[in-house]
Amino acid sequence: MKFENVDIELLKKYDRPGPRYTSYPPAPAFSKDFGPEDYKNAIIENNLANSTADLSLYFHIPFCDTLCYFCGCNMLVTHRRETIRKYLDYLEREIDMVWRMISPGRKVTQLHWGGGTPSYLNPDEIRELGNFINERFEYVEDPEVGVEIDPRGLTYEHMKAFREVGFNRISMGVQDFDPRVQKAVNRIQPEEITRQAIDWSRELGFKSINLDLIYGLPFQTLDSFEKTIDKVIELSPERIAVFNFAYVPWLKPHQRVIRKEDLPSPEVKLKILKMTIEKLTDAGYVYIGMDHFAKPDDELAIAQKEKTLYRNFQGYSTRAGADLYAFGMSAISQFQNIYAQNYKELKEYYARIDEGKFPTAIGYKMTQDDVIRKHVIMRLMCDMELTKSEVEEKFNIKFDEYFADSIPKLQEFIDDGLVEMTGDKIIVTLMGRLVIRNIAMCFDAYIDKMMKEKPIFSRTV
Q1: Does 71 carry a binding-site annotation?
Q2: Is 258 annotated as a binding residue?
Q3: Is 68 labeled as ligand-binding?
Q4: pLDDT in the model for residue 243
Q5: In Å, how far are 146, 232, 292, 303 from 209, measured between CA atoms?
Q6: Taking Cα atoms as reference points, which of 33, 30, 14, 32 lies closest to residue 450?
Q7: What Pfam families has UniProt attached to this entry (predicted)?
Q8: Which pTM does this prediction carry?
Q9: Residue 329 DSSP one-character state
Q10: How deeply is 196 buried, as exposed, middle or buried, from its count of CB atoms within 10 A (0-12, 13-18, 19+)?
Q11: Is 175 marked as a binding-site residue?
């Protein structure tokens, strides 16, 4: 599956703000009306409805040594180890609150530590938290256990500690190997330490490595980013994520440090994207969709081929059907028909736990219409096609009648060769994968209202 001639003019046409659909409805629909008691009741209902379903666990470690100016994550810069110690204590308390309520016997098929920077924990803290979790939860035979690491400040002991507590996958931020770009975004990361981290990972038996890149950063050029892509291909990670820089200074004030005039022009940015897709697919990587590429024998590519791919707040996932329980500041749980997000500020997060309550700040309980539209959007984004009769059978609806307002919106994508409608199927073409967010928006019942409000979404291309 090679992209030999990415059409930049089409990308320009569809380069507009839109959701990433790690949830449906998108997170801006979440409400304060959903609180700790609602989350507690949802756990009880989930136990009754899915008492043997597998679990996906997420743990948010928000701390970093320095601030990367491009960052859009919920993170905190601290050099106080006692601050981290206190957070781990509260995190463990939250884990126990939830763990005691989950039906015994449910097994973990997927686990992830994100951030922030999980590798900012020292090796002893990694072992402590990892063992704490492992003592409480059982695992399936071959779980996917991943962690985000930062090569800066990383030691062999960090990697060894992660391996000892069961991690078998790593994800590492690279962004760009160009020193000028690194300086502009306050992330000085020499190529040598990235290579060192990869070597350690392979030596210790991690089965999968993902590298994150970002296009659209200050001072990037087509030639400079092509050099980064060439080096990444040489490193041969199992997965590569190439994110569009979400320049949202109205949401992330620290991004104001980045001068808009230093960013590549929209034309250059699209040329960088075109080059990246063409080079990675020519090197044998499968373009999964959105930002993700994987080797053909990787679980991500296999899951897409077998139509078992899924999306949640970690992006594309190979473990569909698992209920996601998330822990820590700002973490979002997702199961049955609910979303529940913890407080984004430590003070509130700690206060709720001290009160013996779940630290749920906002959430959402889905309607039947939400459930139907989520299914349609997720299957399009994961399978790159949809069989209408399967949706009709699953939800007892007549597809064309139910989506009478949505189907006409697909026409411009059909006219541009991005979508094909062949009888019972809606098929996203190879070029259509580049604008899959835009295609999914056709089925979003909330998008018109959200677009009228203040800017809340990054651009789709």
Answers
A1: yes
A2: no
A3: yes
A4: 92
A5: 9, 12, 13, 17
A6: 30
A7: HemN_C, Radical_SAM
A8: 0.94
A9: T
A10: middle
A11: yes
